[in-house]
Amino acid sequence: MTNYEEVKVRGYEDFCKAVSERKGKDIFAYFSGNKDEQGVSWCPDCVKAEPVVRGEMSHLPEDSVFIYCQVGERPYWKDPNNEFKKTLKLTGVPTLLRYGTPQKLVEEECFKADLVRMMFTED
Amino acid sequence: MAAFCRGRHRLKSVGCLHTSTRNLTGKFDYDVVVIGGGSGGLACSKEAAQLGKKVAVLDYVEPSAKGTKWGLGGTCVNVGCIPKKLMHQAALFGTAIKDAQKYGWTIPGPASHDWATLSAAVQNHVKSLNWGHRVQLQDKKVKYLNMKGSLVDEHTIKGVTARGKETTLTARNIVIATGGRPKYPTHVPGAIEHGITSDDIFWLKESPGKTLVVGASYVGLECAGFLTGIGLDTTIMVRSIALRGFDQQMAGLVTDYMEAYGTKFAWKCAPKKVEKLTSGGLQVTWTNTFTKKDETDTFDSVLWAVGRAPESQLLNLEKAGVQLDTETGKIVVTPNEATSVPSIYAIGDISLGRPELTPTAIQAGKLLARRLAGVSKELMNYHNVATAVFTPLEYSCVGLSEEEAEQKYGKDSIEVFHAFYKPLEFTVAERDASQCYIKAVCLREGDQRILGLHFTGPNAGEVIQGFALGFQCGATYTHLVNTVGIHPTCAEELTKLNVTKRSGLDATVTGC
């Protein structure tokens, strides 16, 4: 079992703060639509992908960071000018990415455990 | 049976056909192992996997002399086509900014170029392609090994990681697709220590500054072209001719444009030595073979573009019995891409007598995979492959050069239709179009089948691509002139060709 830090954030500002506080670290970020009080996200693909991603987290590199970020409610996400789309260049949720690298998995790619594991284990 | 398949989690059963394949595979670890994850290797491995074969691909980049290395995808993605085209585009924007002012745009002050911004953007894109290829391989169930591969015997490959860890794989068939690397002029003192190649130029963090490009192949011309375009003092040193192997009239138009555009040419010169100065610059001494005198100048960078060669020795090919061409080091292949060893094939730049182009390697790789899977007998057709040179004035062609056509059919049996045209965009921009030119080399008799099409001008590759289809279908001059042009374009001038070289008439296109 590797040692990694999981950070839960909500919204773009929170996300940026979490990243800036962890300079020099290998940061993986998982973006999901907000969950309601029952813990269910408005984004059905996010609901499907989360257990797959969580299932591979034991493969995260030692001393890495896993940021679980809820992006917002559906209308906010649908706005093409939201900060995640504009600045982080996200195109869909769920997105799993390795911060500062071009490595990312978008939507159905997150359903594939072997792709998730590949991202966590390869350079 | 599954117990005999290593990496079994990779193979997804899609029906009973694959169960029987797996039975046969049981003797070998893989049906196909590809050495080389470039244009040819990736296409071949993905196609084979898609056809149900158990495939592995080994990719490894030996760092350049300067220490540059890169990820999955081969030369095209990392140190060839892709970064080249992006940097060429950067240079074109420089010209466009100047032209824009004639079209009414106000540009405050002269535009300056920042190398760091360009190289970072290009490198980012390349890295996203490395990742994309990695995901594709995984998705298509191709086993990827970041290891240096070499042959042990006709069915066995040794892979070594960067850290020195060894693995052995066995395969029913092996495909060598390791491509080539830039050559250094080893007889020139200081060449390796102080010079760079195309392997390095796209990965430099700092601007190359005042550069000497040695070599006038398309690599040399394209690099010198974009370096000039982004504002750097650039000189090309040419031993004899430019674009050897290409139509020489067209090569002359390309270099004429470059000279007018600001690239300095040192014709008929051969480098003698490169020395590092205490000031940090590089002093290059060369012999002007025309005047027989030695000349010298100082540069920030020296870029060798004097040819490419495969790194065959590291692959251990000869020990496995694979016949190589002694002059080039390339692998001798049959039209089936087979080598002298029945289970070993070769595609892409490492195979002898093939165009050194990405699309041909990709197509050859796919067709080979289909033949290995037994679903097709189709061989790769290497004829009539269109290509483009992305120099400041682009050049694209399909078919024979005028010289080749003359040699093959005799000057009297061919008719060359040609035209000097002016792209509409150049008019307002007040740009010189003296080298914008088109020629169709045709048979003289009957419908006058087109033997070769040549075009210099903006977006040359985009223009010729469509005509390459017609060429493939056996287009004649009659077909060409019966095709109604799209107006206003540069491409339409091909459909209006009517002046022959033989007539001696002025080939300049007049207004519409």
TrEMBL record, chain A:
Cellular component, GO, one term: cytosol
Domain Thioredoxin stretches: 9-122
MF GO annotations: protein-disulfide reductase [NAD(P)H] activity
Superkingdom of the source species: Eukaryota
Presence of the UniProt keyword DNA damage in the record: no
Keywords: Cytoplasm, Disulfide bond, Redox-active center
Pfam families on file: TXD17-like_Trx
InterPro entries for this protein: Thioredoxin-like_sf, TXNDC17-like, TXNDC17_dom
Locations listed in the record: Cytoplasm
Family: Belongs to the thioredoxin family.
Annotated protein name in UniProt: Thioredoxin domain-containing protein 17
Organism this protein belongs to: Alosa alosa
Species lineage: Eukaryota, Metazoa, Chordata, Craniata, Vertebrata
Automatic annotation (TrEMBL), chain B:
Family annotation (SUPFAM superfamilies): FAD/NAD(P)-binding domain (SSF51905), FAD/NAD-linked reductases, dimerisation (C-terminal) domain (SSF55424)
Enzyme class, broadest EC rank: oxidoreductase
GO biological process, one term: glutathione metabolic process
Family matches, as InterPro entries: FAD/NAD-bd_sf, FAD/NAD-binding_dom, FAD/NAD-linked_Rdtase_dimer_sf, GSHR/TRXR-like, Pyr_nuc-diS_OxRdtase, Pyr_nucl-diS_OxRdtase_dimer, Pyr_OxRdtase_I_AS, Thioredoxin/glutathione_Rdtase
One cellular component (GO) term of this entry: mitochondrion
Cofactor dependence: FAD
Residue ranges occupied by any FAD/NAD(P)-binding domain in the UniProt entry: 30-365
Binding site for NAD(+): G215, A216, S217, Y218, V219, G220, L221, E222, G307
Cofactor binding annotation: Binds 1 FAD per subunit.
Documented EC number(s): 1.8.1.9
GO molecular function: flavin adenine dinucleotide binding; glutathione-disulfide reductase (NADPH) activity; thioredoxin-disulfide reductase (NADPH) activity
Superkingdom of the source species: Eukaryota
Residues forming the catalytic site: H487
Pyridine nucleotide-disulphide oxidoreductase dimerisation domain segment(s): 385-496
Cysteine pairings via disulfide bonds: C76-C81
Keywords: Disulfide bond, FAD, Flavoprotein, NAD, NADP, Nucleotide-binding, Oxidoreductase, Redox-active center, Selenocysteine
Positions that bind FAD: K85, G149, D349
Family membership: Belongs to the class-I pyridine nucleotide-disulfide oxidoreductase family.
Stored PANTHER family: GLUTATHIONE REDUCTASE (PTHR42737), THIOREDOXIN-DISULFIDE REDUCTASE (PTHR42737:SF7)
Name listed for the protein in its UniProt record: thioredoxin-disulfide reductase (NADPH)
Species annotation: Alosa alosa (allis shad)
